[in-house]
Amino acid sequence: MEKRWTLNDFEIGRPLGRGKFGHVYLAREKKSNHIVAMKVLSKSQLKKSQVEHQIRREVEIQSHLRHPNILRLYGYFYDQTRVYLILEHAPKGELYKELQRRKYFSERRAATYMSSLARALIYLHGKHVIHRDIKPENLLLGAQGEIKIADFGWSVHTFDRRKTMCGTLDYLPPEMVESVDHDASVDIWSLGVLCYEFLYGVPPFEAKEHSETYRRIRKVDLKFPSKPIVSSAAKELISQMLVKESSQRLPFNKLLEHPWIVQNADLSGIC
Ligand code: N15
Q: Which domains occur in the chain, in start order?
């Protein structure tokens, strides 16, 4: 049985974030006292940007996903002017802020996140969902510090810490910057970029100019700074994911067996 929700079922609290199409608020479901994140989208904004179709599809996909490392979409409702998405609340907030605070993560923390993300992506790929846009801005932290993929994909201005006009290139693999065919292995590349950023605090192909980032990605111009100190096992894993030929990238099931993951990741996903 599906319940029909209305705004009256919720008490709205403090804002958690702002986006192009609307805002996210802390909210409490009155009957159950359940705390959620309520995303409020403006129908007129959605219409103007012609993304209604895209959002309907995303809601359809997302509402069927059940994984501890994927943010839940519990349901949605709408009134004359707005669409409301009832999302899982992630009490420890945005991962990129945690990364900014700490500058970079320990190998134990990075490996735990990588292991959780690999398992979440195996689950998604099994459901034929690819390109989850896995960058720090799209990741949230649960009550125990578990990592959660929360796809903000279409709301491009939501938590954009890199003040670029047309978004960041940093996570795009060569086949996407060169716009040839791509498949699920784009997510392996993005996860490699993310692993590097967890350990060094900056993405690997960062450059002042867009054109320079393109060039570095195309060449897979991968360099490991001498500071902070990172183990050779971690560097080896990153090198096996950031491979130009997409069919040669280390698949997620192999990543989970990699010595660096086996020796460093906390299997509870809590860190
Ligand atoms: C089309 C639709 C199905 C996509 C559904 N997914 C989203 O809309 C993705 N999305 C998730 N957009 C915003 C959020 C979001 C969920 C943003 C912030 C939070 C959230 N859950 N919990 C938070 C949250 N918790 C916090 C704790 C401290 C500080 C900030 C916090 N943000």
A: 8-88 (3.30.200.20), 95-264 (1.10.510.10)
Q: Is 191 a pocket residue for ligand 1 (Cβ < 6 Å)?
A: no
Q: Is 17 in the pocket of ligand 1 (CB under 6 A)?
A: yes
Active site residues: 133
Q: Is 109 in the pocket of ligand 1 (CB under 6 A)?
A: no
**CA-CA distance, 50 to 98, in Å (whole number)?**
34
pLDDT tens by residue, 156-184: 322 333 334 456 788 888 877 765 445 67
In this structure, what token pair is assigned to residue 165?
A: 């006009």
- 147, 96 Cβ separation under 8 angstroms: no
pLDDT tens for each residue of 10-52: 999 999 988 777 899 999 999 999 999 999 999 999 999 888 8
Residue 68 tokens, joined = 């501890």
Q: How far is the CA of 270 from the centre of ligand 1 (A)?
A: 20
